[in-house]
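HOLO CASE FILE
Compound: pyridoxal-5'-phosphate
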Amino acid sequence: MSTSDATRQPQSNALPGAAPWHFDTMQTHVGAAPAQGHGAHVTPIVASAGFAFDSVDHAASIFSMDHLGSYAYARAGNPTNAVVEQRLAALEGGAGAVLTASGQAATVLALLAIVRSGDHVVASSQIYGGTTGLLNERFAELGISVSYVDEQNDAEAWRRAARPETRAFFAESISNPLCTVLDTRLVADVAHEIGVPLIVDNTLATPYLSRPLEHGADIVVHSTTKFLAGHGAVIGGAIVDGASFDFGREPEKWPALHTPSSPGEAGLWERFSPQGLAYVLRVRAILRDYGPAASPFNAFLLQLGIETLSLRMRQHVANAREVVQFLTSHPAVSVVHYAELPDSPWRAAAASYLEHGAGSVFSFELRGGLEAGKRFIAALRLFSHIANIGDVRSLAIQPASTTHSPLTESERTTVGIPAGLIRLSIGIEDARDLLADLSAALDAAHTDAIARDI
Ligand SMILES: Cc1ncc(COP(=O)(O)O)c(C=O)c1O
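Model generated. C-alpha cells follow.
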C-alpha cells in the first residue's frame, strides 16, 4: 500500500525548515512544494492512475509499508491529494489526514476503520440527516447499532447511552440546521472514560472557527463540499486524525489495528503508533479497499478554496450576524436559532469553542407555517433555493417542504423542524443586498398571510 506525504510529515504545522505559521499562512502554503516537478507555483493536478516504481525492491517496500511516502495506485493516494491532506492536517492541528470522494464517504471510513459487525455507536441526535440515514439504515445492514443522545451537552446522557460494545462517539461541532454547539471537552471526557474515541464532524465550523482536536476530540471529519471548498463546485470529504486516542490500552476492542495483515507481521498499532500514523494508515487501507478516493481534480479545486478559507469565513460570519440582527427584530419571524444570541441555549458553548463566531448556517421560524415559508422561498431573488450549505452565495431552504417532507408534522416537531422553519446559509455578498432580498421576501410571505387571515 502506498501512503502520502500527509502521513510522512504528520507532526509539522509548516513546511520542513519553516517556523510554525499562523492560520492564514498555513491555509495558503502548507504542503505545497513549488520547487518540485517543473517548478509550478500552484500545486499541479497529478492525473495518473498508477505510479512507476524505481525498482523491484522499491515496489516491494511500498506494498509491505516499509516505505511510506511513495505512491503505487491513485485509489490509495495521489501527490495532489497529499498536499491538501497535509494542509488540512495542519489547519486542524492533526497528525495526518485522508481525502475522500465525499463527506459521506469520510464519515463511513472514519467509523468503519474501527467499528465492525456487533459493535455500537453513540451519536448526538442533532447530526446531519444524511449521517442519521447512514447509521440507521446502512450501518444496521452491517450489524452495527446506534443510540442517539438528544441532550448532546449532557455528560450523563452519553454515559447512559454507552454499552460494552460501544466503539465510537459521534457529534457535530456546529449542527445543521439548528446551529447547536457541541461541548467538545465534556463529550470527549465521557468518551475517554468509556474507552472510545470522539469523532467530530467539523463541516459547519471549519478549522477556522473550531479545532475540535484541541478540545479533546480524537478524529475530525469534513464534508469539504461546503465552506472548505467554498465555491460549491465539487463534492469531497476528509478525515483528520489527532493521533490522541490510545488504541493500545484495550487492544481486544480494536482488532483492525492489532491484527497483522500477513502472518508474522506486527499490526498497524504496533508498527505505526509511535509516529502517530496507525489510525490514518488503517483509514487509507480501507479507502483502498472500499474505493471512494478523491479525484486529484477535485483535490485541486478544494485546495484553491482552502487558500481563502479564513477571509471567507470572516465575511460569512459578519454577514450572518447582520442577518440575525435583522431577523430577530422582524415581526414575521418568531424565533431565530443562532448560537450567539443571548437567549440561545448554545451561547455558552459557542463562547467557549467558537473563537471567531458561530458560523453562517442557521434557521429561523416564520409565522404562518408551511404556506408562509413557501411564499417566502418563492419571493427570494438573490438567495438561491438549494439543498446545500457553505457556498459563497447565500442559500435558503424550507426543510418541511423539501428535505424533511417525508416526515409527519409530529415527527418534524420531535426533531425540532416545525413547518415554518427556514434554513439559511449566508454567503459573502454585500450584507445590504442580502437584507433587502430577505426583507422583500418576508413582506411577501407576511403580507399574503395577513391578507389571507382577513
Ligand atoms: C454536516 C454534514 N456532514 C456531512 C455531509 C455529507 O457531505 P457530502 O454531501 O459532501 O457527502 C453533509 C452534507 O450536507 C453535512 O451537512
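CASE NOTES: The chain is about 40% helix and 15% strand. The pocket of pyridoxal-5'-phosphate is lined by residues 102-104, 128, 130, 172, 176, 201, 203-204, 223, 225, 235, 237 (CB under 6 Å).
CLOSED: yes
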